[in-house]
Specification:
The structure is a single chain. The chain is α+β, with helices and mostly antiparallel strands. It has a domain at 10-140: Aminopeptidase (3-Layer(aba) Sandwich), CATH 3.40.630.30. 29% of the residues lie in helices and 32% in strands. It has helices at residues 10-13, 32-40, 42-47, 56-66, 118-134, 148-156; strands spanning 17-18, 22-25, 74-81, 87-97, 102-109, 138-144, 160-170, 176-185. An eight-stranded mixed sheet has the order 1-2-3-4-5-6-8-7, sandwiched between helices. Strand 4 (87-97) and strand 5 form a beta hairpin. Helix 2 crosses helix 4. The longest helix is centred in the middle third of the chain and has 17 residues, at 118-134. The termini are far apart. The relative contact order is 0.15.
């Protein structure tokens, strides 16, 4: 129940997703070291910065903040390996618009986990979750054109390239970049 005595939306109750290799769950304070290490990586700082995470305490605060889905406009998971419990990244659905039935997806993967298709597995799992639990019709994924690794994740996750957004976003290095806009519809196959 929320503070008004209303039942919590069903989508907030479905907070764990399992795939063949991964367990996606709400971020926890124990993830702070992994989050801090991940956001300290030069590529993460450039393409997907979390500037307010500067130490373990702020990483734990970030975990607590993004684990709170009560606003209804985003949902974030920590990505951990099932076999080891090791934190390997995060993935989120954000800018959820229930009226338009669309949202955006974003992800970060630790350097040690890259090259193993973990991002693709996590993106596919969360995309399916969003279509099933939020009744979305469309999911968008944008990335800097200068970031070919994110383009590969988008393509391998079934997000079709729809166009170029010119000078659309200032990234962590302070530069404004052109972006590719990819999207996946509920009717598309991954």
């Amino acid at each position: 129940m929320d503070g008004r005595g209303s039942p919590e939306p069903l989508w907030q109750a479905v907070r764990v997703i399992e795939t063949e290799r991964l367990r996606l769950r709400a971020p926890e304070a124990d993830d702070a070291a992994g989050v801090f290490e991940m956001v300290s990586d030069v590529d993460i700082r450039r393409w997907s910065p979390v500037s307010r995470v500067t130490d373990l305490a702020s990483a734990a605060a970030w975990c607590a903040e993004v684990a709170d889905w009560s606003a209804g406009d985003r949902a974030t998971w920590s990505v951990v390996e099932k076999d080891t419990g090791e934190f390997v990244g995060s993935v989120s659905v954000h800018s959820i618009d229930r009226v338009q039935a669309d949202a955006e997806i974003g992800y970060r993967i630790t350097p040690a986990a890259r090259g193993r298709h973990i991002a693709v597995e996590a993106v596919n799992a969360v995309t399916a979750w969003a279509f099933d639990n939020l009744s979305l019709v469309r999911m968008e994924l944008a990335h800097a054109v200068a970031n070919p690794a994110s383009c590969a994740v988008a393509r391998h996750s079934g997000y079709r390239l729809e166009g170029l957004l010119r000078q659309s976003f200032v990234y962590g290095d302070g530069h404004r970049y052109d972006e590719h806009l990819h999207a996946r519809l509920v009717t598309d196959r991954p």
